[in-house]
C-alpha cells in the first residue's frame, strides 16, 4: 500500500467513526468543500496522488488532529519490502515535491471594457497545475504572475484543443506578432493568436476554417490582453 492509499483509508475511517459516515459533516467541520474532500479520496483523480503531504498536513490542522495523523501506521522507508538490488525503485513525483511549483488553475470573470479581471479557483480541475521550478527560473517567470486556464472551443485547433491547459503570464501584455494571448474580447475570455496587418492588431484563429472562425480586429477597450500564453499541456498526440 502506498502513502496516498494509506491516507485515504485513514480519512475514510475518520469520516465513519467521527463524522457519522458523511463527507458533508467532515466538510463542515474542516471548512473544506465536499468536492475537494471527494478529490483527495479518489483513487483515480490526479492518478490517485491528490492526498499529498501538503494536503494531509493542512487537513490535520483544520480538523485539529495530531500532527502526522494521516500518516500514522504507514510503512517507514526502511521497512519497505526488499527488492532485487539490480532494480531501481520508481517513485512518482508528488505535486508538492521539491522542484515543482503549483500554478493557480482558474476560471476568469471578465467585464467588457474593464482592464482588470477576477479569478476563481477551478476546483473541479484540482485548483492548481504543477510546473518545474527550473523552467520558471530559466524564463524568469514569477509564479504569482502565472495562471492556468482550460481551452474551450475549436478555434485554435490543431495547435490547441478543447480541454488542453495553457499557462498565461499576466505580466506580459505587450502585443507581439504571431504570439498567442489570453484576451478579454468584449467581456469574453478567448485564447487567440495576435497578428499585425495593415497597421492594425488582429485576433486570429489557427483553425483553417476561417469561415467559422474569422479574424477580429483587436482595438481599444473591446480587446484587452490578459497575458501571453507561455506553456501548454495537451493529451492530443
Task: Give a written overview of the molecule.
With 237 residues, this protein is of the alpha+beta class. It folds into 2 domains: 3-79; 100-233, Umud Fragment, subunit A (Ribbon), CATH 2.10.109.10. Helix content is 21%, strand content 27%. It has 5 helices and 10 strands.
As for the CATH topology of the largest domain, it is Umud Fragment, subunit A
The CATH class label of the largest domain is Mainly Beta
Biggest β-sheet: count, sense, barrel? Answer: 10 strands, mixed
The CATH superfamily label of the largest domain reads Umud Fragment, subunit A
Mean pLDDT, all residues: 85
Q: Architecture of the largest domain, according to CATH?
A: Ribbon
Brief summary of the model shown:
By secondary structure, the chain is an alpha+beta fold.
Chain-wise SSE layout:
Blueprint: H1 3-18, H2 23-30, H3 34-41, H4 53-62, E1 100-109, E2 118-121, E3 128-132, H5 133-139, E4 146-150, E5 165-169, E6 180-185, E7 188-197, E8 200-204, E9 216-217, E10 223-233
Parallel strand pairs: 1-4
Antiparallel strand pairs: 1-2, 1-3, 4-5, 5-10, 6-7, 6-10, 7-8, 8-9
Amino acid at each position: 500500500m502506498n502513502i496516498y492509499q494509506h491516507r485515504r483509508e485513514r480519512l475514510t475511517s475518520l469520516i465513519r467513526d467521527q463524522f457519522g459516515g458523511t463527507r458533508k459533516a467532515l466538510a463542515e467541520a474542516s471548512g473544506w468543500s465536499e468536492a475537494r474532500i471527494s478529490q483527495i479520496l479518489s483513487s483515480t483523480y490526479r492518478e490517485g496522488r491528490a492526498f499529498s503531504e501538503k494536503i494531509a498536513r493542512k487537513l490535520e490542522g483544520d480538523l485539529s488532529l495530531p500532527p502526522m495523523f494521516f500518516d500514522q501506521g504507514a510503512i517507514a522507508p526502511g521497512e519497505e519490502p526488499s527488492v532485487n538490488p539490480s532494480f531501481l525503485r520508481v517513485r512518482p513525483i508528488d505535486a508538492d515535491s521539491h522542484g515543482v511549483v503549483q500554478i493557480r488553475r482558474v476560471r476568469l470573470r471578465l467585464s467588457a471594457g474593464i482592464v482588470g479581471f477576477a479569478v476563481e479557483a477551478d476546483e473541479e480541475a484540482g485548483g492548481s497545475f504543477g510546473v518545474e521550478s527550473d523552467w520558471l527560473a530559466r524564463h524568469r517567470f514569477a509564479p504569482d504572475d502565472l495562471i492556468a486556464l482550460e481551452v474551450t472551443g475549436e478555434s485554435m485547433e490543431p495547435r490547441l484543443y478543447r480541454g488542453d491547459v495553457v499557462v498565461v503570464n499576466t505580466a506580459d501584455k505587450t502585443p507581439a506578432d504571431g504570439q498567442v494571448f489570453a484576451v478579454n474580447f468584449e467581456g469574453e475570455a478567448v485564447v487567440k493568436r495576435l497578428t499585425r496587418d495593415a497597421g492594425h492588431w488582429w485576433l486570429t484563429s489557427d483553425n483553417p476554417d476561417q469561415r467559422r472562425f474569422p479574424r477580429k480586429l483587436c482595438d481599444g477597450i473591446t480587446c484587452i490582453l490578459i497575458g501571453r500564453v507561455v506553456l501548454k499541456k495537451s493529451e492530443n498526440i
